[in-house]
Amino acid sequence: MGLGCMGMSEFYGASNEQEAIATIQRALDLGVTFLDTADMYGPFTNEKLVGKAIRDRRSQVVLATKFGNMRGEDGGFLGVNGRPEYVRKACDASLQRLGVDVIDLYYQHRVDTKTPIEETVGAMAELVQAGKVRYLGLSEAAPETIRRAHAVHPISALQTEYSLWTRDPEDEILPTVRELGIGFVAYSPLGRGFLTGRFKSIDDLAPDDYRRRSPRFQGENFRKNLDLVDRIEELAREKGVTPSQLALAWVLHRGNDIVPIPGTKHVKYLEENVQALDLRLSAEEMQRIDEVAPKGVTAGERYPDMSTVNR
Questions:
Q1: Rounded to whole angstroms, how far apart are CA atoms 212 and 12?
Q2: Who's near 262: CB < 8 A, 6+ residues apart?
Q3: Quick one: which of 125, 59, 135, 130 has its CA closest to 103?
Q4: Separation CA 223–CA 210 (nearest Å)
């Protein structure tokens, strides 16, 4: 299990830097050493936060960051960029913000359809040769794109949303990465927090929380998705665990090549999540969960704009 650090800086309401740093350091104490960030989170502040938290413990950390989603200093989104010159520039900027000499896993955050994937990955491969990056990854890439990228330089990990309410990767993406020997990093394994059972109405979210604009958190979709969470909560009660722990254990049981990276900015939720690693689910329990949360059960799209996803 890894730790998603995005929400410590943006998107999910207010956060506290001191608590965020304490959460990262507690994660390392508990053996959760795979940290996930990106240049766009903040924007540009999440990498600095992670760098500050690991300054004295760099050797313990597998550090992953991403490039490709361009943002301005004002936070505005400027599009997707996979051009070779941008790849090199973005990597140098991330190294500086993180305060490290090398990035362990460097992802292209979203595929740039205007730049051939071969050119982008070629530039990423040069970063490996230069000793600035150890391993390469892609995020939200389609099977054919993954194959083309992997032919240029080995892709070590694909990061894509995967959880009890987002099972789309099971159709084509998981079979593809398994065929190629690529690890799968599951982001939002708790359905952006929905599967924790902590949200009973949209008013439970802060006014500036990004999820208020998410289709799955709106109107009739929210109500339908609450029904799904109710059923998961029931199974969790029978097992004597929290809904979060059950949802994470389900992802962990989908294969040893799948690493979930639940995000949190609070030590107490981190500690709760880590306990899912010790949770064993029988074949019968897995089947019951599948019956409660079959593929396609969730109401609403994952993003307000799905145009940059799985390309």
A1: 10
A2: 1, 3, 4, 189, 190, 244, 248, 273
A3: 135
A4: 18
String of DSSP letters for 24-62: HHHHHHTT--EEE--TTTTTTTHHHHHHHHHTT-GGG-E
Give the integer Cα–Cα distance in Å for 91 and 239: 45
Tokens of 184: 């799968």
What is the C-alpha separation between 121 and 154, in angstroms, rounded? Answer: 9
Tell which phi-psi region holds residue 140, choosing left (phi > 0), alpha (psi between -120 and 50) or beta.
left
Asked if 292 contacts 232 with a C-beta cutoff of 8 angstroms, the reply is: yes
β-sheet bridge partners, residue 166: 163
Indicate yes or no: pTM above 0.85.
yes
Handedness of CA 93, 5, 279, 298 (dihedral sign): negative
Residue 224's CB: how many other CB atoms inside 10 A? 14
Instruction: Please give the backbone phi and psi of residue 59, each rounded to the nearest 5 degrees, phi first.
Output: -70, -15
The answer to whether the beta carbons of residues 15 and 43 sit under 8 Å apart is: no
Distance between CA 260 and CA 277 in Å, rounded? Answer: 11
CA distance from start to end of the chain: 26
Q: Distance between CA 283 and CA 69 in Å, rounded? A: 40
Encoded tokens for 9: 């800086």
pLDDT band at 306 (very low <50, low <70, confident <90, very high): low
Q: Which residues contact 53 (CB under 8 A, 6 or more apart)?
A: 20, 21, 24, 25
Quickly list H helices, the chain.
17-29, 46-54, 84-98, 117-129, 143-152, 173-180, 219-239, 243-252, 267-274, 283-292
Q: Which residues are catalytic?
A: 41
Q: Which residue has the higher pLDDT, 65 or 199?
A: 65
Bond into 304 cis (ω within 30): no
Query: Which of 68-72, 85-89, 307-311 is predicted least confidently?
Result: 307-311
Q: 32: closest CA among 41, 40, 24, 22?
A: 24
Go through the chain and tell me how many residues it has: 311
